Amino acid sequence: MLTIIQTFHQYSGQKCSLKKADLKELINNEMNNFIVKIKENDTLDKLFADLDQNGDLEIDFKEFIALIAMVTSACNELFVPKQQKN
User: What's the distance, CA 42 to chain centroid?
Assistant: First the structure.
C-alpha cells in the first residue's frame, strides 16, 4: 500500500492530482507489466474520462485507486484456477 501511495504522489506532486500527461507517464513507467503502454490519445482520453468521476479534469487519489482496483482484479483472474469440466 505504501508503494501505491508513494507512486501516486511521485507523479502528482504538490497538487495531489494527476493530469492526463501525469497519468500516462505513471502507467507507462510504473504499470507496464500489467497494462499495455498507452500510445493512442483516444485510449488515454477514454481511461481518463472513466476515472475522472467528478469531471474536474484531474485524477485525485480516490479516483486513482479505482484504476488500481481494476488492474488488480484483472490480474487476479490469472491466478484463479479454471473450473474443470465434467
Answer: 16
